[in-house]
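Figure 2 data, in text form.
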Amino acid sequence: MTQLRTFDRWIMKMSRSCSLAVAILVFAGGWCLCAANVGEFTPCLQSFYRSWPPKGLEGTPICQRFNNQYRFATLYSRPRRSPWFSAYLYRPPVGKRPSANWKFEPQLTYPGADGNMIPFPPGPPDQNVMESQAVNLDYINSTYSRGHLNPSLHHQSHEDRSATFTLTNVVPQKAGSNDGPWEILEQTVNHTLSAYCLGDAYIVTGIIPYRTDDHWLKNHRVAVPEYMWSAYCCPKYNNSLPEELKNTFPTYAAIGRNDPNSTEEIVPVNKSAKTQFRGYDVRQMPLQTLEMYLKDRFNTVVSVFYELCSGSD
């Protein structure tokens, strides 16, 4: 109870600080970053191609804010306590990968709280936070890793990379995928876009659930996806592409397995892969093919990019 009262006092303090900042800056004719960042994508539309979020999926929009700047966008599922997708602007990475200082979203728990993601405090997790989202305890001693949808590898500044370490941006992902074929895909996309994309590149990465939602972490709190998917949109690119990349611009996509026992109609299994990575294959494909699989699983039309990323930028 002491830990809970301390957390509540901290939330109230942050809310009062935010209200004071609003009053001061409104009086001064300025602006404030204390507006709600949960519930709509309006403050972070720059994360989407043509300011157009993917259509067809339902959830809670989060404009992911860290150190008073919007970093990327996430469509979050409260019942699953995990994201449907994260969307972001790609930037070539610089420096080392930040340490994993995991954070949470206060406004999922307390709508009046400050909108900046914050690190989990030491000690037992706050029960109100646990009700609203995943916590580190969900992943400890499970058979799943914390799988980034928006990876730190695809960002340049240290703060942008650090902002990806929030549990509202991760899903339960098997190490055979996270440390194997999916990691290779993230590296491949990084190399391809940094070498041939001449303007902004937009990426959306999400999940495909099981047909029946009966796959959860050990405590039945966080839903486990059957597949992960990713797609990029680079409207302005180098026309002198290698032959093997000519069909991968302006947009391309992929689906990765997160369960070695899944059937093979979406992603076939390479039987000659190393044992620890076998069954976690990634299949690259055109954006239209990805959207076909999303329509089949979600039973609705899902559009990832405005006009399939074919409109003039």
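Caption note: The radius of gyration is 20 Å.
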